[in-house]
Amino acid sequence: MEYGGSFVRKLGAAALVADEQNLRRIKSTWPEYWDQYTRMAKQLSEVEKQASAQHNNNTR
User: Fold this and answer.
1) What is the span of the domain harbouring residue 11?
2) pLDDT score at 52
3) What are the distances in angstroms from CA 13 to CA 53, 56, 59?
4) Could you tell me the mean pLDDT of each successive run of 10 residues in the chain, 60 residues long?
5) CA pair distance 3, 41, nearest whole angstrom
6) At 51, which helix (H) or strand (E)?
7) Cα–Cα–Cα angle for 55, 60, 42, rounded to 5 degrees
8) How many distinct structural domains can be found in the chain?
9) N or C: which end of the chain has fewer CB within 10 A?
10) Which of 46, 14, 50 is nearest to 58 (CA)?
């Protein structure tokens, strides 16, 4: 949620507290934002996994 303009950040905040129906509405109304940030989250997760594996290898 730290990326994007103020609208996108507030949209992300709303998604965090939305019930299932409202989350579906957010996703269907702004799919381009959802797709972009889903890809970013996957990339970040992969980077974190690699960093953790490297850290574990260095501490042995």
Assistant:
1) 6-58
2) 86
3) 31, 33, 37
4) 76 94 96 88 88 81
5) 11
6) helix 31-58
7) 25
8) 1
9) C
10) 50
